[in-house]
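ok so I'm stuck.
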Amino acid sequence: MMTNRRFLLPGEYHVTKTQVPIDTLLGSCVSVCLYNIKNGFAAMNHFLLDRPKTKENGDIGRYGTTAIGHIINTLMAVDGNPNHYQAQIFGGAFMVKNLKAATNIGRRNADVAQEILASHRIPVIKKDIGGTHGRRISFDTGTNTVQCKYTGQTQEAKRLAQKRQEITRRNLRILIVDDSATVRRILRKAIESAADMEVVGEAEDAYEARYLVLSAEPDVLTLDIIMPKLDGLTFLRKLQQYYPKPVVIVSTIAKEGSKVAQNAIEYGAVAVIDKGALELYKGLHIVRNILIPKLRSAACKNPAFLSLR
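replied:
not stuck anymore, here's the structure
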């Protein structure tokens, strides 16, 4: 006989050996419903992020790595045979609040759930993940069935759809950040030769760039590394932390395969161009052929261009 319903808030989980409906509401968060087909033990969680930034974090319900690991370990303390378990995954909608979410928190949450279950060799018999709608789910721990109802498109998804339409009706807005006036002039000519792009500003250092990011609202930045006052990599890290934008590094020290190029990608750059490969002083043809496709590709990393899955 069913007992009273249990509703999970974000960061909560529940393990039970009795039949009880467990409900929750999901946006970008994910729930894993776990069931043992031999003894009827079941568990469900509701986690917000894929993994903690530091190893020491006591909030196990908040992160996928810890929340899923906890319910798996709890059930396997009774029955350690992974063949006796079935898992279902729900949630992970696209709910973006700023450009930093180009990484898509919902997708990362869904990915980590599948990764951890696979590492424990637990089969996933059903999943309903991604999309642009919230979900209300109800897990019947007695029958191992889950009812999933959509709760409407998220407000952020609607906002981004409107933003996408706006951007596709205008030129891509590019900000050039380089301490050399000559280089800025060449890059500007190359960019403005493309019918779908315009340069909305030039900055010779990171402090000017910071002002123009806020005032000119570029879609994409080109960014040098060797600059006065603050180097490009440090600026890139700060930008992606506080006001993320798609960035294409254009630098003489960003050789292909170099540590600098690797660091740039690690810090959030979409692409890295060796400035030497542009042959800046031999005309615009090479610059256009290399730079323009990189900028268009970088613009697609803006959430307003992303395909909502």
